[in-house]
Design goal:
Helices cover about 30% and strands about 25% of the residues. Strands 4, 6, 7, 8, 15, 16, 17, 18 and 19 form a nine-stranded mixed β-sheet that branches. A six-stranded mixed β-sheet has the order 10-2-1-14-21-20, with helices on one face. The protein has a three-stranded antiparallel β-sheet with strand order 3-9-5, with helices on one face. Helix 1 packs parallel to helix 9, helix 1 runs parallel beside helix 12 and helix 5 packs across helix 12. About 50% of the residues are buried. GO terms for molecular function: oxidoreductase activity. InterPro entries: FAD-dep_OxRdtase, FAD/NAD-bd_sf. One of its GO terms (cellular component) is cytoplasm.
Length: about 425
């Protein structure tokens, strides 16, 4: 299957555009299909926290998380909130979510799989950024996790599993943390630095630059919303869109949280859900971190971007159509002020920007990467949840390998779409 094919890639987010670049590298003809602007504010890639955390191998669900579900339902502003009105629709996904993290062994299996997917991701992104002419947008200078105490770190299953899968880090006491981050609140007394990790200084601009590079290299962009596929037996004939058919002999579903309807149209009713995320950003802040920081108590990433100081995190389960709850962004803002006391509380509202978007998430925290059951001409590449940006570099390579019939560079069994079918 190494001959050149016409590949239609549905979705021009990070996964889609990198898949396009890598498919082009394999000698295929590529058409990108997306109704929106690559890197635009409508895309999950745009609102990403911006860190390239190759150590983000722990799925959201861990043993015992089921005990917290009542609190998720009661507190609409907690780190993970579930809207009561959406609970009936979300319940099948939530059950699979809880079961996937029921035992340490299940979480460990996911950690090993995600480590394969994410290892060396900052380096892969750096090479892509250089190709696209924006090397300055990717920095490989580590990220810091901060904790109120050493005990908070020692009691965290996630860090024990990271050690098992080969992640290394540097431990910092309170004095060493103050030297690195003098503006950080003194309540944080212990930290770790994962030096292999990196950050993206502007995720939206990065994806836009990758898309421009793809287009300049020969990829065609069609502004349309894909609705399904036209098959002849098990052979793909075309991708169907709201504006007509796009003839092709291969396709990639990389439509993020909107991939579910597309997979169902060819007989794969996959349990994809949106983990709705928010960010808040302060333009020209007077204080803040020197590096990218993850605060264990706030469950929030703080990162410098070229547009300002961004704080991102939290999860809301409420579907694709519900209106945003902007109080969740205000919570992020308040956490940001609490973490960095020198930030003035009277920052003009015009300098505080908020964003809301949709993370595409599978219950077990692993994306779907593999063939559709109805046709090996259709490749799935979605469901990355919290690791969409960092995981997109290797995912694009894997997609190109599947399109060309080559052996994938990592084992894909843990990401097989049919694991839930």
């Amino acid at each position: 299957m190494s001959q050149s094919r016409h590949v239609a890639i549905i979705g021009a987010g990070a996964v889609g555009v990198i898949s396009a670049i890598e498919a082009l590298r394999e000698g295929h003809r590529v058409t990108l299909i997306d109704p929106g602007e690559p890197g635009g504010e409508q895309a999950a890639s745009y609102g990403n926290a911006g860190w390239l955390s190759s150590h983000s191998v722990i799925p959201p669900a861990e043993p015992g998380v089921w005990k917290k579900v009542p609190f998720y339902l009661i507190d609409p502003l907690g780190p993970l909130a579930i809207r009561w009105s959406y609970l009936p629709k979300a319940l099948p996904w939530l059950i699979k979510y809880l079961l996937s993290g029921w035992t340490e062994a299940r979480v460990e299996k996911t950690a090993f799989a995600l480590r394969d997917l994410l290892k060396d991701a900052p380096l892969l992104h750096r090479k892509l950024a250089e190709e696209a002419g924006v090397p300055e947008l990717i920095e490989r200078n580590g990220v810091m996790h901060v904790f109120p105490s050493r005990g908070n770190f020692d009691g965290d299953l996630g860090w024990r599993l990271r050690k098992r899968v080969g992640v290394k880090w540097l431990e910092l006491d309170a004095n060493e943390m103050r030297q690195r981050e003098p503006d950080l609140h003194p309540r944080y007394t212990f930290g770790v630095v994962v030096e292999e990790a990196g950050r993206c200084r502007d995720p939206g601009a990065y994806v836009a630059a990758l898309a421009n590079h793809a287009l300049a290299s020969g990829v065609k962009l069609v502004r349309a919303r894909a609705t399904g596929f036209k098959l002849s037996g098990d052979k793909l004939v075309a991708v169907l869109t709201e504006t007509g058919e796009i003839p092709c002999d291969a396709a990639v579903v990389a439509a993020g949280a909107r991939s579910k309807q597309l997979t169902a149209s060819v007989g794969d009713p996959l349990p994809l859900e949106t983990e709705r995320g928010y960010h808040v950003m302060i333009e020209n802040p007077e204080s803040g971190p020197r590096s990218s920081i993850m605060a264990s108590d706030a469950k929030m990433v703080v990162n410098w971007t070229d547009k300002g100081l961004r704080a991102a995190g939290t999860v809301e389960i409420a579907g694709l159509e519900a209106e945003p709850n902007w109080k969740r962004a205000e919570i992020l803002r308040d956490h940001l002020f609490s973490m960095f006391p020198k930030l003035p509380r009277d920052v003009p509202a015009s300098r505080i920007k908020t964003w809301f978007g949709h993370r595409p998430s599978m219950p077990d925290g692993r994306p779907c990467i593999g063939y559709a059951r109805a046709s090996r001409d259709i490749v799935y590449a979605f469901g990355h949840g919290h690791i969409g940006l960092v995981g997109s570099a290797r995912t694009g390579r894997l997609v190109a390998q599947l399109l060309s019939g080559k052996a994938p560079e990592i084992p894909l069994a843990p990401f097989a779409p049919d694991r839930f079918l």
